Amino acid sequence: MATESRDKPRRIRNISELAKLAGVSAGTVSRALAGKDLVNRETRERIQALAREHGFRPNQMASRLRTGQTGVIGVVIPLGHDKRQHISDPFFMTLLGYLADALTERGYDLMLSRVIPEHNDEWLERLVDSGMLEGVLMIGQSDQFAVIEQVAAHYRPLVAWGVHQPGQVHCAVGTDNFTGGKLAAQHLLAQGRKRLAFFGDIRGIEIEERLKGARAAVAEAGTGANIELFATPLATDNMAERIAADLEAMDPAITGIFTASDVIAMATLRQLHERGQQVPRDIALVGFDDLPLATQTVPQLSSIHQQIGRGAEEMVSRLLRRIAGEETDSLVMEPRLIVRESA
C-alpha cells in the first residue's frame, strides 16, 4: 500500500504548479487548458495530459469571473414590508421552482438571496456590483420599488416579478393586481355579500393594488356595500393568531372575505372552522394566486389565478435578452377568477 501511495502522481493545486511542471508560463497553461490555438498542438496536448495525470481541474468560477460571464443568475426575494416572511412561503416556492427550471434548462446556475433591507438602500447596489452575477431576477418588489428603480437606471440585466407603473424604469413581469382585486370583490358582491373584509398588509405594492381593485368594485356597485381592511401579515409565524383576533373583532355583518394570498385564505379557512362558521354558508372566501394547494382545502378555495409558470418563463426570457444587450418591455398578465367551493 505504501509503494502505491509513493508511485501515485502528486495532485496539482493550481495553474502555477502545473506551469512549473510543464516548463512553460502560467499564461501558456491557461490558454492550453482552454484549447486555444495560440498554443501549438504538441504543447497543448502535453499540458492537458499532465493536468489529467495530476488530477488538476481549473477553477471554473475564477475563469468566469475574469471574463465577466459567471453563468450565475441571482434570484432575490426582498422583504422590506414583512421581515418574518420565509422562503418556504408556497408562492415563493412555486415561482422559484419555475425560475430554477427555466434557468438550468438554459445552462445557468442560480444564487438565491433573501434580503431584509433594514433601512439600507444600498443592498441591491452591492449585490449587482459584486461581480458574481450575470443578471438578477427579483421575486416581488416589496416596499423597495424606489431602490429597484434607482439601480435599474444603470444596471440593465434585472427583471422583477411585480407591478408595472407608467414611466417605470425597471422591467417587470406580473399580474394585473388591480383587475384581480376587482374580480374577487365583484364575485362576492354578485352573491349578495354587501359587507366585505380584505385580509392583507398593503405595504407590499402588489397587495395594495389588489385592495384598490376591490374598493373600485365596491364603489361601482352602487349598492351601499363596503369593504373593511385588516392588515394581515404574510409571515406565517403569527398569521393564525392575527386572523383569529381579527375575526373576533370583525363586524358580524361581514359575510365575504377577500384575502391578499391563498396562504392567508387557507389560514382564514382554518380559523373560521374553529369558530364554527361554515364556508361559504356563513362567510364566502376568495384567495389570490391560485396555488396548487387551493384545491386541497375543504372546501376547495376560490381564487384569483396568476399565470406563475408563464410569468417565470417570461422573466427568464427577458433577462437573457437584456444580458445580450436588448431592451425589453414589461409584461402585465391578465388574471382569472377560478370559482370553486369557498365562494
Automatic annotation (TrEMBL):
<keyword id="KW-0805">Transcription regulation</keyword>
<dbReference type="InterPro" id="IPR028082">
    <property type="entry name" value="Peripla_BP_I"/>
</dbReference>
<feature type="domain" description="HTH lacI-type">
    <location>
        <begin position="13"/>
        <end position="67"/>
    </location>
</feature>
<dbReference type="InterPro" id="IPR000843">
    <property type="entry name" value="HTH_LacI"/>
</dbReference>
<dbReference type="GO" id="GO:0000976">
    <property type="term" value="F:transcription cis-regulatory region binding"/>
</dbReference>
<dbReference type="Pfam" id="PF13377">
    <property type="entry name" value="Peripla_BP_3"/>
</dbReference>
<dbReference type="InterPro" id="IPR046335">
    <property type="entry name" value="LacI/GalR-like_sensor"/>
</dbReference>
<keyword id="KW-0804">Transcription</keyword>
<protein>
    <submittedName>
        <fullName>LacI family DNA-binding transcriptional regulator</fullName>
    </submittedName>
</protein>
<keyword id="KW-0238">DNA-binding</keyword>
<dbReference type="InterPro" id="IPR010982">
    <property type="entry name" value="Lambda_DNA-bd_dom_sf"/>
</dbReference>
<dbReference type="Pfam" id="PF00356">
    <property type="entry name" value="LacI"/>
</dbReference>
<dbReference type="GO" id="GO:0003700">
    <property type="term" value="F:DNA-binding transcription factor activity"/>
</dbReference>
